[in-house]
Specification:
Blueprint (H helix, E strand, L loop, with lengths): L2 H5 L6 H26 L7 H22 L11 H29 L2 H4 L4 H24 L9 H21 L7 H6 L6 H44 L15
């Protein structure tokens, strides 16, 4: 991974990309802090909130790295630790944001009616199930980071970790499962066979969501490559507009 993959965009300037990431980071942390005194620590057993925390961390990390690498050689390779950190948060947030969006609107949208009499309540329910995906989608198309199929492993690690986390809360601390269908499908203590099958099914579903985002990444690459080739035909290789398009798209 090279510095330019973190700090630059094919579509906007470095300053614009950094500004977008900072705005997303500030908004995400503000939302999470706003809800904490209202819902307490109990809020952090839900995948929606934990995934948004991951998104907030991602944009914080990317904003920080953009500032640290601002004057570095764009072709300089980053350390393996930075590379793994960025790849993990990028792959996991991109896919899980879509999972949260799909699960909510397919299985949990009935919660909207419970909060429809309050704008704040309605905003709290709808916002994290829509804006989190919007943020990751904007990052996907503005950023340069590749999203190879092999990075599905990062998403799998996240899903398994969250499942084990839910089991620990349920069986070690008597904290209820965060979602009603968990009681029926993931009660590994009382229905181990059914829970194992359901866990594998959820993992397959998450994998399909990653494949969808991976396909969006391929679409992004195709669109940008086509645009770059069109620029070269119009301006020539030595007279291209200054749009930071000289780097190869992964």
């Amino acid at each position: 991974m090279q510095v330019h993959e973190i700090t630059t965009s094919y579509l906007v300037s470095k300053k614009a990309l950094l500004t977008v990431r900072l705005v997303f980071a500030i908004y995400s942390w503000s939302f999470l802090v706003w809800r904490l005194p209202i819902n307490g620590i109990d809020l952090y057993r839900f995948l929606t909130i934990l995934s948004w925390m991951g998104i907030a961390l991602y944009f914080t990390i990317m904003s920080t790295l953009s500032l640290l690498f601002w004057s570095r050689d764009p072709k300089e390779h980053v350390s393996s630790g930075v590379r793994i950190l960025v790849q993990y948060f990028y792959a996991s947030t991109q896919s899980i944001a879509l999972v949260v969006l799909v699960i909510f609107w397919l299985l949990l949208r009935g919660a909207i009616a419970e909060f429809s009499d309050s704008f704040a309540g309605l905003f709290f329910v709808v916002s994290p199930h829509v804006l989190n995906f919007v943020q990751t989608l904007v990052e996907l198309f503005l950023g340069k980071l590749p999203l190879p199929l092999s990075h599905i492993g990062y998403m799998i690690v996240t899903v398994v970790t969250y499942t084990v986390y839910s089991w620990i809360l349920r069986y070690a601390f008597a904290v209820p499962f965060p979602y009603p269908f968990f009681d029926e499908l993931l009660d590994v203590k009382n229905t181990p066979g059914k829970s194992t099958i359901a866990s594998l099914a959820f993992l397959a579903f998450f994998s399909v969501m990653y494949l969808f985002v991976w396909a969006l990444g391929l679409l992004r690459n195709w669109i940008l490559k086509s645009a770059i080739e069109a620029d070269k035909k119009i301006y020539g290789p030595d007279d291209e507009p200054q749009t930071q398009t000289s780097d190869t798209i992964a």
